[in-house]
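step: validate -> pass
step: tokenize input -> pass
step: predict -> running
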Amino acid sequence: MTFAMNLLVDSVVSYESEGPSILSYNTDAVLDYGWIIPIRGSIITVRFCVFIITAVLSTTFLAYASCSYREFSDFCVPVPQNDYRHMTMGAVAAFVTVIFISHLIMRWWCIRTHLQGVIGKGNSVIITLAAVFSCTLVNIDPKIEFDARRSQQQIYRYLNLAHALLYKTASKQMDLSDLVERKIISANECAYLSKIKGLNPNIIYGWIQILIQRLAFSGLLGDMLGEGAVTMKTLIDDVENIRSNSSMVLVYIRTQLPYAFVQVVAVVVYAFIIQAIFVSAGVIGLGLKLGQTREVFWGYMTLVLMCFVFIGLLTIYRLLSNPLGSNAADFPKNSYMQMCESGYKKLMLVMHEISTPDIHSPGNVSFKEADLTNWYPHPQRKHVDDKKGKAGTLSYQDRGGAHPPSLTSEHQAYESLHGDEFPIDQPGDIILSNEDRV
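step: predict -> pass
step: emit ->
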């Protein structure tokens, strides 16, 4: 029996392999019989079942204590006798809950829309950088190319880090150890963020914008008087769009529906259920007295159906009030993060293959494994003197007689902004391995 039930549930809903959330479900199966199967993420929870059982027991007690059953007793509870017209709160409860659920679903969908803006715009940043590098990194000093590719990887990692911090902020999780293990954040960056009260993905988006501006002013995005300025503006606008969507997600999560509105909905629904309990108790009590089994059955059936519908509607609010939480009905955050990490990585690898010189000739655009495994060298970047002999900068080859501004070391760039605090790792600490490229 248990095996058959598990098989039935698996045919209706599929869950994350590393998480509690629902990935997809069979619409026909849910509409046909999913309402009666205790599936994770449904309204049929322990709280839900306890409430219905409590309502049935209360109705049974009132039925035996009602004047319908104890007509000539000195003490009895005056309840309506076999008359459902006294359930006057039904229309009001239905009207209020419809408005309540419509606002809740609209809020849920707005969060999902802004979350898609966070996920989708990251692809634009990766593609734009790769497209620009396909032109600016041709016939350039390998050390300069290494620095540019490493900055590209840094941006890729920061996009994933900000995405993960968004979920942790929404669910009020302060532990970053899992991100360190997955190499999304370094130990130095983790220590730096731990000093800040409350995680905020906007900090990471600020780091991304700093990296983009460093690339731009180093001439790696093109001429700053022409296409380079346009590219920098495009990239910064994309990052700002991601940051704006991320902030809107947190605004929706942190801003609940108005307290008075939620309170009124709860009062109206529970008032109607109490009314239904008294009316059903009168019907059941009269049926017990007269021996009418049909009236007893329909008295209990009416009560259970009313509780199922209206308490189920209130349970929806509990399940969807924070769709970035840890319930089965919440968004599959782990799957979203895995999708972004693998998607960004594939975009970087594929776009780099397109930009390699040996496939620029017509008809030679095949995807070769060798291009992935030999993306760029891994040795630690060394700062050398440029032509002017200034220490701490990288040497550039002249491109058409132009000598772009020097690219300072990462430590120097962030030291000027943060003083002694240096949240970004030294070059080469976190890079894509050969296994990742394959």
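step: describe -> Residues 356-438 have pLDDT under 50 and may be disordered.
step: cleanup -> pass
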